[in-house]
Design brief:
- The protein has 1 helix and 11 strands; from the N terminus they run βββββββββαββ.
- Strands 2, 4, 5, 6, 9, 10 and 11 form a 7-stranded mixed β-sheet that branches.
- The termini are far apart.
- The longest helix is centred in the C-terminal third of the chain and has 5 residues.
- By secondary structure, the protein is mostly beta strands.
């Protein structure tokens, strides 16, 4: 059974850094794009970043460009999200997601038009001011 398991979320001060990890297990994700979404209380889940499994293609939400970096380690079936210069508005539960459809469709995922096939359980990131 396919599983995505996030880790690395915690409380951090504004301006600080965190690295989230998403370990993929089960069926091969070798042809899957993987990405990160986040959901703040009372808000819809929103796209953050995505990467092709080969790593040649990435996409970022405007709100995180220049501060967050997504990367992957294919040998470990793990995707990372390096988050720098964190702001209180980055506070949310961060979810890992996967789709065989590619980076662009994953980045366009919305609750109304879902494109992600697998989700992790989420990891809480809290940024204090």
């Amino acid at each position: 059974q396919a599983q995505l398991l996030e880790s690395g979320g915690r409380l951090v001060q504004a301006g600080g850094s965190l690295r989230l990890s998403c370990a993929a297990s089960g069926p091969s994700f070798s042809d899957y794009a993987l990405g990160w979404f986040r959901q703040a209380p009372g808000e819809e889940r929103e796209f953050v970043a995505a990467v092709s499994w080969g790593g040649s293609t990435t996409a970022y939400a405007d709100a995180v460009k220049g501060r967050f970096t997504i990367s992957r380690d294919t040998a470990r079936n793990t995707v990372y999200l390096q988050m720098n210069s964190l702001k209180p508005e980055d506070t949310a539960v961060y979810y890992c997601a996967a789709t065989p459809s590619g980076v662009v469709p994953l980045a366009k995922h919305t609750p109304q038009h879902p494109t992600a096939d697998y989700w992790g359980q989420g990891t809480q990131v809290t940024v204090s001011s």
